[in-house]
Amino acid sequence: MGTDAHVVVVGNEKGGSGKTTLALHVAVGLLRLGFRVGCLDLDAHQASLTRILASRRAWGERLAAALPHPRVEAVAPSSLDSRAAALEEERDRLDCAVAGLAAVCDFVVIDCPGTDAPLSRLAHLHADTLLTPINDSPLDLDLIGRVDPLRRALVAPGPYAERVWEWRRERCRRHRAGLDWLVVRSRLRNDGGPALAADLVGPMAQVLGFRLITGLSERRAHRDLLLWGLTALDLDQPGLGLDQTEAQRAAHAEARALLAELWLPRVAGRL
Hints:
Blueprint: E1 6-10, H1 19-32, E2 37-41, H2 48-63, E3 71-74, H3 83-102, E4 107-111, H4 118-124, E5 129-134, H5 138-144, E6 145-148, E7 153-157, H6 159-173, E8 180-185, H7 196-201, H8 204-208, E9 211-214, H9 220-226, H10 246-261, H11 267-270
Parallel strand pairs: 1-4, 1-5, 2-3, 2-4, 5-8, 8-9
Antiparallel strand pairs: 6-7
Helix pairs in contact: 1-2, 1-10, 3-4
């Protein structure tokens, strides 16, 4: 792996948590700061990140706008019948893909499927930074930690938190650097309602070893831009003709604040 490459894995074993949206914003944000970025899509079924980035390239070409683009690759699950042989093949495919991108990029962003798939588990072992988006839902919280509803207190780690602990131990065994785990509050509401995630997950952070940060709000500005593979960080791009509305400027500030909270190497100085 390239000595300067930092691997960001966006993982959560539940669908609909906002992984691909988060991966796109991180990749575009790093590109906008002048970094070389590679993206690895592990969701062979939906291929959402691959399709969104294809739309981004097509839209930029149509408008003759010099949009920055990451290198994009995909790794599909093995079709071998033997479970052991399939796992070995997937490991080799993933290692080669990550090493190839890391050799020419400053950052590699890996978008994992929303299932407990072997390929996803292997990807987590590459993570220097792990981003786990969660919605403000008890179902999402249950993956992180089991909560007593009466005492509103953590009683046991959730299945995903237990696996993060295993991945950390395995990385140490392989003499790799530590893993910075961030739980990202995703699709936040702007209606002033109670924030279940902040109330319950916040106290779990020190016990389970993660940082809780604020992600992207449920803004129409984010959703509309996503159709074209764009983000609020592209608002200043010449040739796109995007309106600078107050809502879009707020979305832009929110996306930049997210980048700052990730504490990725060499990012703070460029922000």
